[in-house]
Specification:
Helix content: 55-70%
Number of domains: 2
CATH class of the largest domain: Mainly Alpha
Order of helices and strands: HHHHHHHHHHHHHH
Amino acid sequence: MLYYIEGKKARNPFTHENLPVRFYTLEELCYFMEKNMYLIDASWLGEELFAWLEGELDEDVLAAHLRSSRRKMGDVYSCAEWIFRTSGHYTENELQDIAALLDQMRGKTKMERRKMRGDLYLDAGRYRKAAYIYMELLQKEYAIQMTEELRGHILHNLGVVYARLFLFPEAAGLFSEAYALSRNTKSRDAYLYAMNYVDDSCQIDEQGMDMNFSLMKDALNHLSETADDPAYYEKRREASETAGAFDWKAARADLLQKWSDEWRSMV
């Protein structure tokens, strides 16, 4: 969490073509990086930023350290971590969390970092924001830039979003498509779970869901272990009651269209 301590305000903001905002203060820079870790890269976190910190905010020592770190380490994430640490706006525990997240970013492509942002939204229960990110990454222009494994993971996580909103037919279709690409057993098991709540009138595209004897045996063993857990029945009852409390079938098309329209207005 950023503590808003008023610092010097630049006369000329820092701007860059790869950034959606402009910064006037060190606080604004930290806040942006904290909320948009996936956008941290060498295209803007370099000499141009260092010169702005030095010339506009009088952060001579910080700028010198960043130049030295970039020259020796060649790592923008080390620079970002130092900016957070020397800003004086974070507790030690918060800095440790930030450092751990930055470490996860190392070696990742821009798309992988973007997916990580979506995963954070998913874990926090902010399903619409997560869905927007996954929907963006699944557009055709990104297809040639990602592996089938990564695309499978994105489809799976979008399926999780849909399942948690009780849109089980759509979730099942996404899990099926994810399994076809990644052959991840989690996608197969999630597909079988979602199909528990899909009635016979729904047509699910089972592309690649080659449920042969071996796979069915593995799935049965997994589901049997799950079913032995009393909590399973409680979770299934809660899901059934919640799904039954609303006319999801009637609302599904409107909800998905609303998501699509909102997403398109943002990109």
